TrEMBL record:
Gene3D superfamilies: Aldolase class I. InterPro entries: Aldolase_TIM (IPR013785), His_biosynth (IPR006062), RibuloseP-bd_barrel (IPR011060). This is Nickel transporter. One of its GO terms (biological process) is L-histidine biosynthetic process. Belongs to the HisA/HisF family. Pathway: Amino-acid biosynthesis. Keywords: Amino-acid biosynthesis, Histidine biosynthesis.
Amino acid sequence: MRLIPVMDLRAGQVVRARRGERATYRPLSGSALGAGPEPLDCAERLLAACASRVLYLADLDALQGGAPQTAVIARLLRALPGLTLWLDAGFRRPAEVQALAEALDCPRAGGAPLAEAARPGLRPVWASEALPDAAALQAALPDAAARAAGLLSLDRRGDTLLDPAGCWGRPDTWPDSLILMTLERVGSGDGPDLALLRRLHAATPGKRWIGAGGLRGPADAEAAAAAGASAWLVASALHEGRLGPGRSG
C-alpha cells in the first residue's frame, strides 16, 4: 500500500491537522522530519519520507471560502519537477478548476476533458463537503473520461456524511479513484476506521480506495491494505516518527 503525504496549508504556512477542526490548526512545529511551516521545505521532507512523487495539499483558505493560495501552489510545482499535486481547494464547479489551471499556466491539450485541465502536475480533488448540489456533482464528473481522471473525496465526520450533493448515494457517478475521508480521525491517534472501507471495497470491484485519517504506524498500514486500501493519506504519523524512513509499511 502506498503512503501519500499530506500538507494542510493556511495563509501560506503548513499547519498540523487535528480531528478536522480547522479553527484549531496551528503552524507545524516539532516534526520528526525536521520540517516546519515553510511549504517547500516541508513538501520535500514529506515526499522523501514516503518515497513519493504525489503530494496531497489541502488549501484551507480555499476550503473555507477564500481565494486559492495560487502563489504557493505555483512555487511547489515549479520547484519540484515530476510532482503530482492532489489539490483539495473546495472546488464547487469545473470553472474553478479551469481558472486555477490558467492562473498556474498549466498546459492543456485542445479538446481534452475538463478533468485533465490542470495536468501535468495538478490533479483536482472533488470533495463531497464542498460540492453544493447534485448538478455540481454531475458537472464535475460528467462522463467516463472525467471519472477516469478525477478524484472524489467522500467526506464524513463520525456518522455524519458531509455531502450536500448526495455523492455518497450516487455510486454511478463515482470515479475510478475515491478517497474515504474520516475527518474526526485525522491527527487523532485513534487508528483508522476500516469497517466501512471493507464494505465499500467489496461492493465496488475495480475502484481504487484511498484512506484518510487515523493511520498510526506499520501495523495500521498492513491492516488498511488488507481491508482494501490501495493508498493512504498520512501526515501526523510522519511528523511524529511513527511512519517514514527506517519504518516498515
